[in-house]
Amino acid sequence: MNKIILIIKREYLTRVKKRSFIVMTILGPILMAALMIVPVYLANQSSSDEKSITVLDETGWFLDKFQSSENLKFHNTFSSLELAKEDFFKSDDYALLFIPKPTETIPTSAFIYSNKQPNIEVKTHIKNIIKNEVESRKLVASGIDEKILQSIKTNINISTIKISESGEEQKTYTEISMIIGIFSGILIYFFIFLFGAQVMRGVIEEKTSRIIEVIVSSVKPFQLMMGKIIGIALVGLTQLLLWVILTFTIVSIFQVSFADKFPVNNTEMLSSNNPLQQIDADKNIDFNNEKINKVFEAIFSIDYATIIFSFLFFFLFGYLLYAALFAAIGSAVDSEADTQQFMLPITIPLIFSIVMSQAIIQNPDGPLAFWLSIIPLTSPIIMMIRIPFGVPAFELILSMVLLILGFIGTTWMAAKIYRTGILMYGKKVNYKELWKWLWYKS
User: For 45-49, 310-314, 352-356, which range has the lowest pLDDT when averaged over its residues?
Assistant: First the structure.
């Protein structure tokens, strides 16, 4: 046991002190934080540019309906379309809006001329103003009060409540459960491949440099393999925890420091003289505030203790199971190029788990979800997808026990291959040869 601990320390300290580990530990959180911060920042920067739009309205319906805002400046022109186009190309305007006379009685089309593709926000804003004005005039012509029609519109809110056998009720949020499940499963998939490949490369490097011959003179091959697997597992856990802490810190600091740079978009793009549109805007504010409150309520309703404990368990033992197989592959070959033929059987269960994630989300309590979540090769990913939806304690414990037994089984199998392959050089190994190694006597 002391020798395994020494190998764990050697593997851990050697890798933690590497420049690549330090760089990735710092760069990883910066990149993850950037994925959250940069899109929001760029979206606000692009929306803050002032755009000037010329309006040529042949119907006369919308002369006072396009009101300028902080970002959009509208001004009318009364010339012909050809002259308006000439003036537009000479100016710095963003676009020319042309509303032609309708062939019948109601205008139902408009044209936006621009030097470049108009963005969706501007197009939607213009479309909504025209649509609301046309609808408003239709209502007046039909003798229908706009306020009465608006009062008919109703937002329906459906809440899901989970009832336990004891009668306890708990509010649940399917969307949040889906996001957490998918994210956790993909994260485990990513880390198993990342650190499992490190185990394989480490074994290949020691084997090709012949340093392994010196090491096995002092420790047993099994002790060496276990020390390497556990040492790299601790490196992975260290890096994962540092990524989570640093990413959260960076995002929090940015939000506090630049809170004034991200104003909430209220009714600016919705405001007009149309009373129907103003009522819509007011209702949208209330609805958006309600949605924000629901998001926070959903976030705080998650049982983070269970999620975090389960994630750490399935990440650790899922990694240990696959790392043993990666170590066996590394010991059986002489170069990384020779690993491809043996990688496919190992990667298929992981890839299959990700492919089946959508089906699991659709029916997290079905027989397919149950069996894939207790089979050790697929359970680390599938069970993490299921847990946010609620998994019976019996199934969770069964999955954990079988995963531990699967780790023990794969470790025994990998050790059989490792002890023979680690000292074998210059021989092309196939599956038949690996099968023989499994049954060699000590």
Answer: 45-49
